[in-house]
Every structure is written in structure tokens, then in C-alpha cells.
């Protein structure tokens, strides 16, 4: 042990340096690797299945690597897979999801950041009450509010349209995003705000010229949170849109769980992977920011 | 920057208090509307209409507690509640156990911590629909795990949760834990990192073993983290819907029905609005039962103390 410590680089916390193959370490890494396999298995199975042909799948062994790699299932999932009588593939759902996603993300973040700013710098009588209701609202099961929202959207003439769903996402994203922005703006020194006030800057001037530039990291967290959340939504999509405007998750479920026709497992898995690709890319590209986003977003009831 | 004729500090002299800060109030209008109209109004509307005999369209024909009586005598609702109970208890225990164990392993100053953490957390980025469909395929009785294990020579092996009503909830459990435990691990890891390094030195001096230190010292210190994790898991369990729709569709038969699905089926498919409202009010009550004690412990005590 002693010469081991002298050999390797100087470590101030001596006792932490253990033998590489101690019993604890083998147990520790063994456990972690075993558990990792459980977590990686579905991704692996999805990938290999989506690259096999149907005859090979019928032979069995979901875990085996593909003998002939074929990309046909991916092409079919994207442009030919059927939902009911429509056979134009997942590309339609993808398009819908993008058209839902962009306005929802922009609108919800714009509104929530202004809310957070007003709540931390421009408190008015009752502002905390509304904020508390908002936070409690995040825990109310969505089922309780589904039908009243149907009525509201119908009154507004937005039921079944993409804009109706955008509104719903904005409303239900508001609690957590407002909390996120309020906490961030509260941590900015108040002197800065006061100095701007003395200089005569108004509500919007302070917001755009001081607060937004300082809050860029939290905007990124909010974007990650909203993009994954809205992309993965199923419940609101299935209730507030109609088949022509179904988002990708809903269309995927309809493709895979359709009772008609022969089940093409390879196409199904390619479709599933395609739907999961957007959040996965965001997850692996954003790293630590994603963790921050979900740690905040986890509160979403 | 133009200097306004009236300095802002003197704006309190304006005639009405209502117009003080009026821009902030205007800007908060979406929040106020969301809070009052959607959250308070919507919830109150649903609770109110759960006392009516609405079927296809909401009507104000009061029937008292009839809907609730019918709800609790419906087999489908009882199955839903039982399923959620089984799923909930198992999911709560397993997620907490797996989450904490993984976090503790990662906290032992290991190599490749980032890699392991990414692996445990990536399922959380995926939707429940994707999760459900992936596990539906792995658990496929004809081509999935069961057939592979049988091909390896263990011909009596049987694990077909998607065909077997008795164990179908465990099929969902495997998928649910896969998707959600990474988040709990992350929260636990943050909690462990917040614990003073000196605790470990003290434990070492006293000759207490690692496992014993975790159980006797660290876990009691992490009580707030566990409470937060508990609330998160519980809130997620009550919402359970997409996973069931994607993975089993509530089947075989009605054997994997859950309350959230019951509400939506009755409201939007069976056109029995009153029943849906009553069932969703019961869901609201269950959230209240979980949250009110938590909010009281978390915020009520602190204000007084």
C-alpha cells in the first residue's frame, strides 16, 4: 500500500487511494455494470431489432445482433407506416410535433420569464397568492382539468387545432417555469434593479436590457425542460388534437398498437427510436444542464 | 434613455392604488388567468359537476353522491385502484431502494462516474410511450425474453406479463422503474454530496462499517431528500397513464386498468362524464392526502419555527 501511494501522483487525501482490485471495488463495479445492462438493454434491443429483416426476427432471439443489416425498416417507419387508412408514416407526426413544439416553447418561456421577473422585482398586492395557487396547481392531477379545458378551447374555437395544444402546453408549463425564473431573478442583486429604476428605466426596459441578458443560462435550462417535456407529451396530444394534427407520440402509439395487419416489429422499433431520438439527442448534447432542468422539472405534478 | 417627468419614486401619489405597478399587473395577467380560471376554476367545475348526472354533455341535474356510489360499486374502478395500489407500493419501495443504492455506489469515488450516471438517467429523457413500446417488445411472449431464455435450454421458463393477467402489473413495473429511477438516483446523489465529509472520518474513527454508516447515520440525515423523492414518486404514480396505454392498453381484459385511464375512457370514450368527473375528483383527493401532510411538514413548521 505504501509504495503504491508513492508511485502514483501525490494525492492529498491519502486514505482514499485504494488497491484497484479490492473486494469492495469488484463488488461495486460489478453491481454498477450489471445494473447498467438493465438500463441499456431496451436501447440495444430497439436498435438491433430495427436493423433486422422480418424473417430474421421470426427466428427468435431479440438479443442477437442483426445478421444482415437493413435500413429498410427506418425508411418504412418514416414514410410508409400506417395509422388506420393513412399510410404516410411518422413524418407527418414529426412535422406536427415540430409545429407544436416551437410556438409552445417560445410562448411558455416568454410568459413564464416575465411572470418570474414580475414576481421577484415588481411584487404587487396578491402576487404571492397567485403564485402559490400556480404551484399548488402543478400538483393537481391533469384529469381534473381536462374537461373544463375542452370547453374553454371549444369556446375559443381552438379545439383540435395545433394552437389549442400550444395554449395547453403554455398553461401547464407555467408553474414550474415561473418557479424556475422567479428563483433565478431573486438571486440577482437587488441593487442592480434599483439602480436601473433610479436611472428611469421602466418595466420592459429593465426586463430586456438587464434581466434577460443575465438569465441566459436559465433560459437554456427552461428550453431543455420544455422541449423534452412537450415532445414526450401524450395525454394532451391525444385529447386536444385530431388525427390530422396528432403529435408524434400519439401517432407512434397508433402505429405500433394498431390491431390491423401483420405486426412488423422492426418497423415498430424503428418508429419508436425515431420518436425517442429528439429527447435523446438533447439529453446527450446538454449533459449537466439537462440534470438541472429535470431536477427543477421533476416538481411538475 | 429619457428621464420621465415624474420620478418613479413619487409614483405612489397617483390617484388609485389599483394602477400602481400597472405594467407588472398587466404582464402577470396570463399567470393570474391560468391560476384562477384554469387551475381553480377548472378544478372547482369538475368537482361541482361530479354531483350531476351528466352523460354525453355536462348538465346541471343534481344527483347528490350517486356518481360516487356507482363509482365504488364498479368492478373496473376497484380493479384500477387495486392495480395502482400494487404498482404504487412496489414502485415506491423499489425506486427508493434502487435510487439510493445506485447513488451510494456512485458516491464511492469511482471511475467513470459520469458514464454510469448518463446510463442510469437517459431513460428519463424518453417518453412513457417509447418506454412502454420498447418493453412491450422485450416482453413479447413469442419473440421476446421468454423465448430467448427457453432457447437457451430452460424450457419451463415462463415470464409473460403481457399475456398473464396475474403478473401484468409487474411488467409495467419493470418499465416504470427503468424510466424513473434515474431521476431519484440523481436527487439522492445530490443529497449525498451535501453531507459533510467529516461524518465519514468520524465513522471511521469510531470503527463503524460503511454499510452501517449509511443506514445509521447518512439515511437519517437525508430525511428531507427522501421526503422530496417520495413526493415525486407518489405524484408520478397517480399520473400513471401513457405507460399503460402504450405497453398493455389496459389488457389483457381489464387486468392493467389504472384510475387515470378510467377517467379518460369514461369521459371521452364511454361518454359518461359524471363518472369521469367523480373518478377524477377521487384522484384529486388522493393527491391531497399525500400533499397536505407534506406541505404542512415542509412549509408549515418552518414558518412557525
Can you describe this structure?
The complex is a heterodimer of chains A (301) and B (305). Chain A is mainly α. Chain A has 2 domains: 15-70, no CATH class; 92-297, MetI-like fold, CATH 1.10.3720. In chain A, 71% of the residues lie in helices and 0% in strands. Chain A is globular and about 75 Å long. Chain B is an all-alpha fold and 305 residues long. Chain B has helices spanning 22-27, 29-49, 66-72, 75-106, 113-125, 128-138, 145-151, 168-193, 197-205, 210-221, 223-239, 242-247, 259-268, 273-304. In chain B, α4 packs parallel to α8 (168-193). The model of chain B is unreliable at 1-14 (pLDDT under 50).
The dominant shape of chain A is globular
CATH superfamily of chain B: MetI-like
Question: Please, how many helices of chain B?
Answer: 14
Major sheet of chain B, described briefly? none
Task: Indicate the mean pLDDT of chain A.
Answer: 86
Classify the beta-strand content of chain A into a percent band: under 5%
Q: Output the number of helix runs of chain A.
A: 15
Low-confidence stretches of chain B: 1-14
Low-confidence stretches of chain A: 1-15
Question: Can you lay out the helices and strands and say which pair or pack?
Answer:
The complex is a heterodimer of chains A (301) and B (305).
Chain A: H1 2-7, H2 23-50, H3 54-58, H4 72-79, H5 91-121, H6 127-137, H7 142-156, H8 162-186, H9 190-198, H10 203-214, H11 216-232, H12 235-240, H13 248-256, H14 265-286, H15 288-297
Helix pairs in contact in A: 2-14, 4-14, 5-8, 5-11, 5-13, 6-8, 8-11, 11-14, 11-15, 13-14
Chain B: H1 22-27, H2 29-49, H3 66-72, H4 75-106, H5 113-125, H6 128-138, H7 145-151, H8 168-193, H9 197-205, H10 210-221, H11 223-239, H12 242-247, H13 259-268, H14 273-304
Helix pairs in contact in B: 3-14, 4-8, 4-11, 5-8, 6-8, 8-11, 9-10, 11-14, 13-14
